[in-house]
C-alpha cells in the first residue's frame, strides 16, 4: 500500500452536502472522476456491486460513505482512553486477524462523518464533565483514521482542536505512513500519535493493504521530530517460526530511527493474538487462503465480559512472549512506559 487510499465508489447522504466538508469532498471526487451515488443513510447501503460475498467484501472495502454522525454519545474506550471519538468507521486495510470483520459484519465499507464541529463540541462537553481530570479520546477504535485523512483533514482539525483545550487529549493508532499533512498541526503535545508495528512475518502475511514496516517506522521518526508524544502498539503478538528474532529486529529498527529526545515520552501497548469462534468463521470466509493459526486446541479459553470468550495463547507461551518483548523494550527504550500487556 504505497499510494494513499482513493475510493473506487463514493456514497453521500444528501444532508452531508449541507456541511462544508461534505461539499468539498463532493467537488474533490467529481474532479477525480470517481462515481458518486446518494444514499438515505450511511448505515443502509443496499446496492453495493459484486456477484459473490468475496467480491462484495473487497468492493465494500474500497467504498467510502460520506455521512453525518447522529449519535453524539461516545462509547467508553478502555484501556487506552476514557472515550472513543467517532470521526470515521471502517478501514481500507485487509488485516486477516482484524476484529472489525466481526463487528462490522456485512458493512465493511468506510464511513467518514462531516459534522466534525458537532463531534468536537460533544467532546468538549465530556471534558467539562470530568474537569479538573484530564479526558482522553481514542480516535481509532473502529477505523484507521490516518488512512483517509489525506482526503478529509478531519484528524488534523481534531489535533488542532485538542491542542487548544487544557484538559482534552487525543490519541489514535495507524498502520499507514501518510502523515506529512499532520506534521505542522498545532498539537501542543496533547495528541499521542501511535503506530501499530509488528514482526516482518506478521505484516507480510497478515496485513495486506497497509504500509510496510519500514515506511511506518520512517513516519514515526517524522512524527517524533514534529514533537508529538509517540506510542507503539505491538499487536497482534503472534508466535511464528523465528518470532524471537522477528520482534528483536523490530525493536532494533525502531532504535535506529527514533531521535534521542523523543524517547523520554514513548508508550508501548502489547496485545497477544486472540480470536473468538465467530471471528474465526468470518476470517475464513473473507480470507480463505490465510495462514493465520486459528486452532482452538492449541489455545486456552478466556471467558469474556460480554459472554463471548477468546482463544489466547497458553500461559507458558504468554509468559515467554512477555519476557522477550519486555526485555527488548527495556534494552532499547529504557524510559518508555508500558501501558498494558493483554
From TrEMBL:
Q: Which InterPro entries match?
A: rSAM, rSAM_sf, SPL, SPL_Bacilli, SPL_firmicutes
Q: Which domain of life is it from?
A: Bacteria
- GO MF, one example: lyase activity
The EC number(s) attached to this protein equal 4.1.99.14
The signal peptide here is: none
Alphabetized Gene3D superfamilies for the sequence: 3.40.50.12110, 3.80.30.30
Matches recorded under CDD domains: Radical_SAM
Return the SUPFAM superfamilies for the record: Radical SAM enzymes
Q: Which UniProt keywords apply?
A: Lyase
Which PANTHER family does the UniProt record give?
Answer: SPORE PHOTOPRODUCT LYASE, SPORE PHOTOPRODUCT LYASE-RELATED
Name of protein: Spore photoproduct lyase
Q: Its encoding gene is what?
A: splB
